[in-house]
Write a structure and sequence with these properties.
Blueprint: H1 6-14, H2 21-34, E1 41-44, E2 48-52, E3 65-68, H3 73-94, H4 99-107
Antiparallel strand pairs: 1-2, 2-3
Length: 108
């Protein structure tokens, strides 16, 4: 299924059907930040959507992943996963998180 607006994207993600496009966009902004590891940013306009990683404490300008309307949920999820991984990688880099520290955290 091709996604052509925020209402369709939200329905494809969580099954929620909202009639108001602006309300759907606000829910997507909140969910994107809340349910990604790095707190990704979400934006939508008349042309499509943008997702980007976020790294608190970093001045790094994350690459925005832009999708024109007409994308699939799989294409969206791939862009979001890439953006999230980039944000996490940058955060770990600036906070000097090593593989050893990650393994210790997982063991706890």
């Amino acid at each position: 299924m091709k996604i052509n607006n925020c209402r369709e994207l939200l329905a494809a993600q969580v099954g929620a059907v909202l009639q108001d496009e602006d309300e759907a966009r606000l829910v997507l902004e909140k969910n994107t930040f809340k349910y990604t590891e790095c707190g990704c940013c979400f934006n939508a306009d008349e042309g499509g959507v943008t997702v980007a990683g976020y790294s608190e404490g970093s001045d790094y300008d994350h690459f925005p992943h832009y999708l024109k309307w007409g994308f699939t949920i799989d294409e969206y999820n791939e862009a979001l996963n890439d953006a999230d991984a980039e944000g996490v990688e940058e955060w770990e880099s600036i906070n000097e998180i090593t593989e050893e520290a990650k393994a210790q955290e997982e063991d706890e």
